[in-house]
Amino acid sequence: MSSVSASQPAVTTAPQRVWVGWAIALSASLSFSVATPISRGALTAGVGASEMLVARMALATLFMGLTIGIMDFRLLRTDKRCFWISFGAGLLNGAGMLLYTWGLERLTSSMTSMLIALSPVYVLSLLALRGERVTYRHVVRLALSLLGVYLLIGPGGEVDPIGVLLVLVSLVCFALQTTTLQWFLMGYDARPVTFYMLLAMTASVLLMWGLEGATWQPLGMRGWVVSLALAFVSTYASRLLVFAAISRIGGGQMAMLSPVETLMAVLWSFIFLGERLSPLQWAGGLLILTSAVLAIQRLSIARLRPRWRLWAKS
User: Fold this and answer.
1) Residues 311 and 11: beta-carbon distance below 8 Å
2) Which sequence spans correspond to the domains of the chain?
3) Comparing C-alpha atoms, which of 211, 103, 85, 213 is closest to residue 164?
4) Residue 281 — left, alpha, or beta (φ > 0 → left; ψ -120 to 50 → alpha)?
5) How far is it, in rounded angstroms, from Cα 159 to Cα 108?
6) Residues 54 and 230: beta-carbon distance below 8 Å
7) From residue 57, how far is each of 94, 144, 253, 280, 282 by CA, in Å?
8) What is the pLDDT along the chain (314 residues), one digit of tens a residue?
9) CA distance 31 to 25
10) So what's the pLDDT on residue 299?
């Protein structure tokens, strides 16, 4: 595995390859959407946040390691650049997960999911710093999604400000991790990249657990089932899907699907946690769906200035 030079000629993306990219991206959004409702349900049932994260990340790393071991153990023999960038991206994601979980302890599942819809603002701002052109369609989609989030939250609604702050800061970590993948790791195989990211995420949560006193609170049957589901669906599988999607449609376009993830998470919260939405909030959900439809209409990889472009393998 070797990196792909940014000076290579432009690669024309076939329509079929782009549609495959969007299908993978939608699958990733579905995998991520169940994480918040499941985690919130476990936290309200008394499952320890740190213990749940430790179990989740350790299991996800184990799954990825076994996958690579069964397929080809030599995949782990990557260069130092890939290892350290992957590990760094994992540390960012691990910090984001900790902040996000702490925020989720203070907010409802629906509220936390709504805030995640703000992630395109973060990702596109970072991509713009590297030369990606922000078109009027980007602005329209972002305006619709933000208006939808505002209506979903409800004008005049009261939320825990510390919880909101924790989630908003976590989005900075997630956005940096997403753009790091697009900027530096598109020429590498997704499997070792994902494994080293998961390894770093596990190290992050273990470090925080140690700083909290390293006292293990038994997870119980519910906690282990939740951790297993989160590890496989929302961590192991979802990250492979995200990397594959970004390599086909770009980090900016992947981020544009976050409103879909938000609406799905709100629906799961409504169905399984008994949370309720007002007609005004449903109107916000419709705006979010409209934003996602507009995002899918653009079937091309987000373009960067030639000196910054990292071409994905065909």
Assistant:
1) yes
2) 23-296
3) 103
4) alpha
5) 9
6) no
7) 9, 34, 27, 37, 34
8) 333 333 333 334 456 667 888 888 888 889 989 999 999 999 999 999 989 999 999 999 999 899 888 888 887 888 889 999 999 999 999 999 999 999 999 988 988 887 877 776 677 677 766 666 667 777 787 788 778 777 766 665 566 778 888 998 998 898 888 788 778 887 787 788 889 999 999 999 999 898 888 888 899 999 999 999 999 999 888 877 887 887 787 766 776 676 778 778 988 998 899 987 778 777 877 787 677 666 544 433 344 333 222 222 32
9) 10
10) 32
In contact, 39 and 101? CB cutoff 8 Å: yes
- Compute how many other C-beta atoms are within 10 angstroms of the C-beta atom of residue 20: 15
Contacts of 66 (CB under 8 A, 6+ apart): none
Backbone angles phi, psi at 297, to 5 degrees: -65, -25
d(CA 109, CA 262): 10
d(CA 244, CA 65) in angstroms, rounded, equals 18
Tokens of 93: 């994601």
With 0-12 / 13-18 / 19 or more C-beta atoms within 10 angstroms meaning exposed / middle / buried, residue 120 is buried
In terms of Cα–Cα distance, which of 179, 84, 86, 92 is closest to 131?
179
Nearest partner of 97 among 139, 55, 156, 41, judged by Cα: 55
Tell me the CB-side half-sphere exposure of residue 125, using CA atoms within 13 A.
Answer: 11
Please name the amino acid found at residue 182: Q
3-state SS, residue 190: helix
Q: Kindly state the tokens that stand for 157.
A: 């609604």
CA dist., res. 181 & res. 302, Å (int): 14
pLDDT at position 12, please?
40
Give 73's DSSP letter: G
pTM of the entire structure? 0.75
